[in-house]
Every structure is written in C-alpha cells, then in structure tokens.
Amino acid sequence: MIRQSIVQSIRPTLRSTLPSVRRAISITPARAAEGDTGAPKSGGAAQGDAFSKREQADENYYVRQREMEKLKALKDKIGEHQKHLEELDKHVSEQMAGSAKK
C-alpha cells in the first residue's frame, strides 16, 4: 500500500520530466511485387508454366459449369412461364367460347 502511494506521487513528476515518446504510425501502403496482388503474370516463361495453365483451365471449367447451371435454371423458368401462358390461353379460350354460347 505504501509502495502504491509512492508510485502514484512520483508518476506526475516523471511524466513532466521525461520527453513524450510516441511512435509514428506509417500510413504508406505496402509495396507488392508483380503477381502478389493477383494480377496476371507478365509474358515469357511465366505463361508456359504448367501450374498456371492448369489453374487457368480449372477457372475456365468452374465458370463454364456456373454458366451451364444458370442457363438450365433460365430454361426451366422459361418452360414454367410457357406452361402458365398456355393455361391462361386455354382459360381465355374457354371464357370466349362460354360467352359466345350465351
């Protein structure tokens, strides 16, 4: 307890005598080397790399699969809409035939 009171009494004087030490914060962005940011590699031997070719082929396959799924969903939706339109057309034809009989 005595130690705490001594430290608390000395602290204000220490703060005023010691220079303020603060570390500057760097706000400059980190520099990235070519290819570090996900940018495509430049020409030359990098384009002929087997890993790069396989990675590109995998990406193309993935994109193609997603596009095929989207196309299938659109075709299914078009089919549903056509079926609905046929039902509406049938309903209108029945209403027209019913009103002609009267």
Number of strands: 0
Overall 3D geometry? elongated
Cα-atom radius of gyration = 37 Å
Tell me the span between the first and last alpha carbons: 107 Å
Total helix count? Answer: 2
Poorly predicted runs are none
Structure description:
This protein is mostly helical. Helices cover 67% and strands 0% of the residues. The radius of gyration is 37 Å and the shape is elongated. It starts with a helix and ends with a helix. The model has no long low-confidence stretch (mean pLDDT 79).
Descriptive key words:
single chain, 102 residues, mainly alpha, 2 helices, elongated
Strands, helices and their partners?
Blueprint (H helix, E strand, L loop, with lengths): L1 H16 L32 H52 L1
What can be said about this structure in brief?
With 102 residues, this protein is mainly α. Helices cover 67% and strands 0% of the residues.
